[in-house]
Design a protein that fits this description.
The chain has about 500 residues and is of the alpha+beta class. The protein contains 11 helices and 23 strands. The structure holds arginine and zinc ion.
Amino acid sequence: MKRITWLIFLVLSLLGLSCQAALLSPTPIPDAPLATALPDSLPTASAPAPSPLPTLQPTAVPTEIAINGADSLNDPYYPQMGNGGYDVLHYTLDLSVDVANNEIRGSATLEALTTAALTSFNLDFHGLQVSAVTVNDAPAAFSRQNDELIITPDTPLARDTRFTTRIEYSGRPQPVDDAASPGEPVGWFADAGIYVLSESAGAMSWYPVDNHPLDKATYTFRITAPKQFSVAANGLLISEQITGAMKTTVWETSHPLASYLTTLVIGHYNLVTETGPNGLPILNYFPPDAGGDVTSAFKPTSEMLSYYSQVFGPYPFESYGAIVLPIEYGFALETQTRSIFTTDFVDEVTVAHELAHQWFGNSVSLTTWKDIWLNEGFATYAEALWIEHTEGKAAGDAYMQDIYANASQHHLAAPEDPAVRNLFADSVYLRGGCVLYALRLKVGDELFFKILRDYYSRYQGGNARTEDFIAVAETVSGQDLGAFFDEWLNSDQVPALPGQ
Ligand code: ARG
Ligand code: ZN
């Protein structure tokens, strides 16, 4: 475009913008669905225009207009999880728990940063009774709509400012339904003491939360419960203080944590501690009657930590350990720094799987749930790596050949974008694991392990997408891997393994 034409074009576009804005006024506050599509700051041109002639000086219009924070982060699988307009930095959950009656009472205090100017904002919260809300210590109005808690501060919040909101609440928490596991709700459970298993939507069953892995935050858990119980959560055990019949236990983590990876376990447990590589505290909670068959599966934890640290990169967090629940539920979950197992689901391979998630899933987190293979495919392939480390290359290879045979015999579906009801299906775990096995066969050991390390080092502590992993693989290998990944991730057919 010639310079003069370009100038005319520019003036015309500015005119167009202002006219559009003039049409919108005098209601500059869009409703929520529109707000979800808005960038962090509204274009200055949407201010009411006093005359049809545009004012081109940027100083002539207000810099921003407060909006209602969006009620969604637009995740295709969980449209109601997460909210827009702010970023939580830290949660302090200060809760008294009546274990016998499953009643809780207390507060959640959130320190957050606005990413837009806000007249109101949402949190995800299921059930329970909210008695009071403050924003920056001033009482705030609030309302409930399904699983949304809508908070309206008495003064709108400016963009890019820190604020604190405190929600006082009480009630009897119940697990919530989740589209990924129909008939198997997730979150807070009150059988066998208390335990929390949240993947994917369960965190909102016990505290108000920006409930999506895109908004990771640090946490303090201050939990008061009858003193005879052990209380375990994520991070480091900071203090225990007994007052009469009650005990207040404080746990804290200074590494960002996705809400589905928070946990709280209250019950009768034996705490077994050890020191891992580089002095890492390992805190295991076992049922008092757990036999050697249960506890021995965790003996290799320290060696696993050093092995995976060497293969993937340094262990991401300040502590590790397991909690074995005294129930049989065929379940394990990679709750950050403190993976949870049920007594019937404790074996060395599962212990390795949950530990590997600390790197892949927990430190490098999903941007959208449809990329779940980045969690489960990686953790499944990490099982084979552990077997390779302990039993030799042939054993690791045989492990993946079995998984591949299973995937092809059963015509397992594509692991990428599996539909929310298949989030934890074999296609994601087994065929997802085969993606990495096939990649290693394709590019060779040296490049393959460099890809894993580079991907982890680039995205640790944050979020990644499938495209990000592919980009790292292509950069490291210098190869165009578009067709390879497309086949492995998206094709209806299970592809043949490279070179076989
Ligand atoms: N992420 C867990 C694991 O692979 C499995 C969670 C399954 N969740 C569920 N709601 N069924 O260890
Ligand atoms: Zn897993």
